[in-house]
Amino acid sequence: MSPINTNKINFGRIAMWVLMIIILFITLFPFWWVLRTALTTQGMIFENTTSLLPVGFTWDNFRRVLGLVSTSEGLAAGGSGQSINFFRFMMNSIVFSSIITVAQVSFSTMAAYAFARLRFPGREPLFLLYVSALMVPGIVTLIPNFVLIRGIGTFLDDTFGIGGSYGLLMGQMVAPYFFMTPFAVFFLRQFFLGLNREVEEAARIDGAGYWRVFWNVALPMSRPPIVTLGIITFIQSWNEYLWPLIVGRDESVRVLTVALNIFRSQQPSGVPDWSGLMAGTALAIIPVLIVYLIVGRQVIDSIQFTGFK
Amino acid sequence: MASRTSVRSSNWNRRETIVAFLFLLPSLIGFTAFFAVPAVRGFFISLTDWNLLSDPEPVGLANYQRLVQDRDFRNSLVVTLRYVLWNIPLQTSIAVVIAVMMDRLTKSMFLRGLLLIPWLMPNVIVAMLWLWLMDPGLGLLNSVWVGMGFEKWGFFGNPNQAIQSIAVVNIWRHVGYTALLIFAGIQTIPHSLYEAASIDGATEWRSFWYVTIPLLRPVLAFVLVTSLIGSFQIFDTVAVTTEGGPISSTEVLNWLIFERAFVRLDMGYATTVANALFVILVGVSLIQLRLLRADESDY
């Protein structure tokens, strides 16, 4: 290679690195701005709006948002006096996402296994029906599902008098995601079809029943895709907003996404309590980042995997 | 082998059928209750006038007649299209650039991990963050911009800038994820093709256009179809930043449906709009798959 050529390549690479660093900066800097604002004294939010560091460093916004200071103190600090029952909403988000993840992945795995391995009349048409539901946008089933869930709630309340209870409300929130999603069944069936069936057949010949073959032979070989699906399901449930908004506004089951937007909409429209809002936002971001530190590699692998398998 | 042929030769094995049914039972309950029946029921609700409080009143196709003449619906269609047209081309091309740069510069997992962070955050949180950055008076963006001597942006408060601002927010959230998908696609292109191209004297730029892009066609089709379908259904960001305003400039279809259903309690008409969106999405994905010849790459 001629030296000129090498120079050219180096120049191109430097330009690419510069661009990459700019992109990284745009990606990450906003998170610092959230923290910087959350640590700024509410009254000083108008001053020095471009300062990279918090203006008048304080933890008060976090304490205010968590309800650790009295309302009058909070008002004095420039807040709306609203606190956000952060730990409860966080717990609700965890319960909501965990129930959905465990149930949906288990039931979808069973269904996928039946479609891939068991022979029964009507298998192909039924599978096609499942897959065709992939095309239906969420908003189409949203209203009928709301009507159904509301009806079931009223019925259970009339019969057992459990209206407004945590169990019923949480049940109403998780129900549509609880049993299956077409994507989960489709994804795992593809995997099972690619799995070598000889081990399973050997176990059958040795006299193992269907359930034992599934539980002791097929499942242990399918850990990676099941974990992958679990991670994706959890992230999606954690981010869910519209459905929890229409069936889970009640404070006892309110999840973090709904709570944060309600907190925002209760702000006086002229002068929102930005440092309080950003303290709430930061508190919601931190747990996601911690989990991501632990399972990050798996998340990245699973996205590349689901895209193309 | 012996067992397989014996199963084939027999008719349905009754035990196996029963087991299969038990394996399928939970998913069947969910599929029937929350996917199949609601999809059909949605159509029947759209044939009624229903405010949830009294019984639904059958009105035939009146909601569909109303739909065709409804200016709000037409506005909503235009707004959604404008959003999609700001969102998808920018997002996809930036993602391709990032993916190619990742491929050429470093395969670092850490870098990919950093670029993915925005996508992990709930829409609501991302929207909240940008609502602050783009606050016309105190937000960082205007503070810097005005500090440089330019005129203030209105962002979410300006009807001519609101939908673009929402597009920017969602591009920021999704571009890393999209880049990751495209990056994974690039990894499947055999290295020997680039070598052959470079022996034939192709520059990096030419090998990008004539090797990378054509071979990426199936991946790009997949990415475009899924992100386009998602884009048409934008809701969360609107709910946090503008709630459809100012003066309906961000009243996207999903917001219109939500507002008609749960604010005005006009269930019949809201489902009608939802069904229209469904038809549009089916149409869009069919056209797109055909245009992109998704099933084949060029080689």
Low-confidence stretches of chain B: 1-7
Please identify which CATH superfamily of the largest domain in chain A we are dealing with: MetI-like
CATH architecture descriptor of the largest domain in chain B? Orthogonal Bundle
- Summing up helix and strand content along with how strands pair, one would put the structural category of chain B as mainly alpha
Protein chain pair with the most extensive contact, residues per chain: A-B, 94 and 100 residues
- Tell me the strand percentage band of chain B: under 5%
Low-confidence stretches of chain A: 1-5
Secondary-structure element order of chain A, N to C: HHHHHHHHHHHHHH
Cα-based radius of gyration of chain B, to the nearest Å: 25 Å
From the N-terminal CA to the C-terminal CA of chain B, the straight-line distance is 38 Å
Could you tell me the number of beta strands of chain B?
A: 2
Explain how this protein is built:
- The complex is a heterodimer of chains A (309) and B (299).
- In chain A, α6 runs antiparallel to α7 and α13 packs antiparallel against α14.
- Chain A has 309 residues and is mainly α.
- The N terminus of chain A is likely disordered.
- Chain A has 14 helices and no strands.
- The longest helix of chain A is centred in the N-terminal third of the chain and has 36 residues.
- Chain B has two domains: 44 residues, no CATH class; 222 residues, MetI-like (MetI-like fold, Orthogonal Bundle).
- Chain B is 73% helix and 1% strand.
- Chain B has a two-stranded antiparallel ribbon with strand order 1-2.
- The longest helix of chain B is centred in the N-terminal third of the chain and has 35 residues.
- The N terminus of chain B is likely disordered.
- The interface between A and B is large, with 94 and 100 residues.
